[in-house]
Amino acid sequence: MHNFISIPKLYSLFLKTNQSVCTDTRNLIPNSIFFALKGANFDANEFAENAINLGCTYSIVDNTNYLNHPNIFLVKNVLKALQELANYHRKQLKIPILAITGSNGKTTSKELINCVLSKKYKTHATLGNLNNHIGVPLTLLGINNSHQFAIIEMGANHQGEIELLCKIAEPDIGLITNVGKAHLEGFGGIEGVKKGKSELYKYIKSKNGKIFINGDDDVLLSLATGIEKICYGLKNTNSIIGVNDSKSEMVSFRFMSQIEKNQTTIINTQIIGTYNFINCLAAVCIGKQFMIDDESIKQALENYIPNNNRSQLIKTENNTIILDAYNANPNSIKVALENFTQYKNQKHLILLGDMFELGIYSKNEHQKVLNLLIELNFSEAILVGEEFYKLNADQFIKFKTTNECRDYLKNQKKSNYIVLIKGSRSMRMETLQETL
After folding, report:
1. Nearest CA-CA partner of 103 in 275, 305, 316, 353
2. What pTM, to 2 d.p., does this model score?
């Protein structure tokens, strides 16, 4: 009979290491704990002993066939053990934990908020988009005694997911950037998205915590009844009031607080897209709440340069590219196209890739994007992917694959264009920039 290791005992092992965990033998961390997770096409139990041979101190498995080393320990379910260990660690922490979710802009908001809070605190924030049932535990376990603030991004594509992540991370502060048409298939339509995202509000309410909220967003306000709110937005009733002054592709704005209405701070960012104005304002609001002075907030936001295919402005030898190809859904494509109309007196080229995870709504939502292209009078657009290819769109060029589009662009030698590149992650639309 094999004995399962308890979470407190597992935590004592975690403290004996360099307080690191890893889940991939290709990226092992010396003196860490290896968690042998299962995937659709692999069972990492097989690599448990190898992980120790390569430098890990302990391995955690849920298959008794791999208990072939004194530093390999058994649990009932490796993923659940990782989540429970992360929660146990969280309970030892005495720092504020802010959870961020939303249909659009959550990663950018996380980065902006992290930049602002880092001016005063030692922060720990989600790396990249490690925002799911594995990424959130890994993020939590990266928090150590030197950290004073944690920012945890939470992603979801079906109901119950945010609730689970909240139970693991136990945030005391919440921010939902917005609720839109993302992951409609998994959530079961827009009402399902609202229900799923608002699980964060419900958790914060149950803990008597507080939320930061766009006070101009009626959908969010309707979901946030009975919770302590700190509001930001354009209206004079918000705690932090912003004015969007953007005249070029970069977001420029002013803000003032309800308390100090005579004191205005002007911020000229290096981030594109007027849709990012509200994300910047959220970072201002959180910074002010945690006693960061206006000049430090200004410095943080003005020095932030986006990367990772999000809201990037790239100037090549021949063209100017707006690269926003990290992901796409109906809402984010709509705001990207509307923002693109602001580039006057320039030749426009739009490269749009399919939107995924829309299920039965997919055809209709892709058609709406096509209709919007026509309505906004864009004449040059290339639509890429199986869903766009099915549409009757003779006025635009269509390709089934990104590779076909790349081959076409290589032979076109486009120049003096401003180009918008947008599409879902799996479309890898960012690979098209090399042809421009």
Report:
1. 275
2. 0.88
